[in-house]
Amino acid sequence: MKKVLALILVVVMVFSMAACAKQSTEPANVQPTDTNADAEKFHIGIVTGTVAQSEDELRGAEAFIKEYGDVDNGGIVKHVTYPDNFMQEQETTIAQIVGLSDDPQMKAIIVNQSVPGTVAAFKKIRELRPDILLLAGIPQEDTNMIEAASDLVVDADNVKRGYLMMLAAKKMGAQTFVHISFPRHMSIELLSRRRTIMEEAAKDLGLKFAFETAPDPMSDVGIPGAQQFILEKMPSWVQKYGKDTAFFCTNDAQTEPLLKKVAELGAIFVEPDLPSPIMGYPGAFGIDLKNEAGDWPAILKKVEETVIAKGGAKRMGTWAYSFNYTTTLALAEFGKRVVEGTAKKDSFEDLMACFGKYTPGAEWNGSYFVDVATGTEKTNHVMVYQDTYVFGQGYLGQTKEVIPDKYNNIK
């Protein structure tokens, strides 16, 4: 009996020692594997307008979701929109942007277009979540304020385009360039500055420059009246300036009737104010692009075929890819790469690589914004432009052109 009890005691002691040994080799704070995976995962927030206000930016967000998945379905992208009437509903706009920072896994927020309210929202996020990368596309607020609130600001380089559009017009055979606008737009500093640069560049390149005033679509005549004005005036303008005249307008709504008449009358059109194959062209020529939606090479091909059929070969152009659409995608991809550590937030080359990813075949160029009043270069504010594509001819090689420094200093 004593032997049996002794044997039992030995067995109990062996198991007790084994349990203690096992316990001592395990880490004190074991975390489940799933929790570690969640800690490494991050989310990207994108804020755009609605289809009614800015379809291209929204479609860019949808394309990014298609690539990386929506947060609600296990992906990394969270997309929200700001109100159509954002000028009167700035508090809602701010709330929508700031709301993204409530997600503890949110690591980058992109707003495109950066409408009024973006600066206030970014400031609040910066206070609450300084770890979040803040990227602003196509800003509509004070330049110094949006630069101070953002990690990076990106816009179309209208300073460089002031010269490049004149050069493109000359390459396309223009002898005269007609700039069409109205007082409200000319009160906007950058648009007014671009017009001044255009006029100086035209003189340097041997082109005649003319300015024509059109009704403001926001006035009593509305969009229909402003469009009708262009339709009625174009025949007399072409007669006045000649067919070898490049026409340009600052208003999107007036682009459609302008394109229609340029083709009918045999004039020249370099590119829209906000360049895109779908800016004005589908409406002007009745082009149905439902089946091509989101496929920019297919969109360009269909628009090009129609423009050539309408007699616009080598006389009408655009950018091959929508700037607004591409900016949403490029900034979102850039934000993702910075968070992953595969890109640096202050790298111009890393940013341009993201633009290139979504625009195969197209060339981009750009530079840092320079405050013309102080001469200070802003390294977190990048201005970009895409090569001009002429229907029936191809790219003009604008991104390879050397732009004289004098135009950067014109106010």
From TrEMBL:
Top-level taxon of origin: Bacteria
Pfam families attached to this UniProt entry: DUF3798
UniProt keyword Ubl conjugation, yes or no: no
Keywords, comma-separated and alphabetical: Signal
Classification via InterPro entries: DUF3798 (IPR024258), Peripla_BP_I (IPR028082)
Residues making up the signal peptide according to the UniProt record: 1-21
Transmembrane segments: none
Name assigned to this protein: DUF3798 domain-containing protein
Organism: Anaerosolibacter carboniphilus
Classification of source organism: Bacteria, Bacillati, Bacillota, Clostridia, Peptostreptococcales
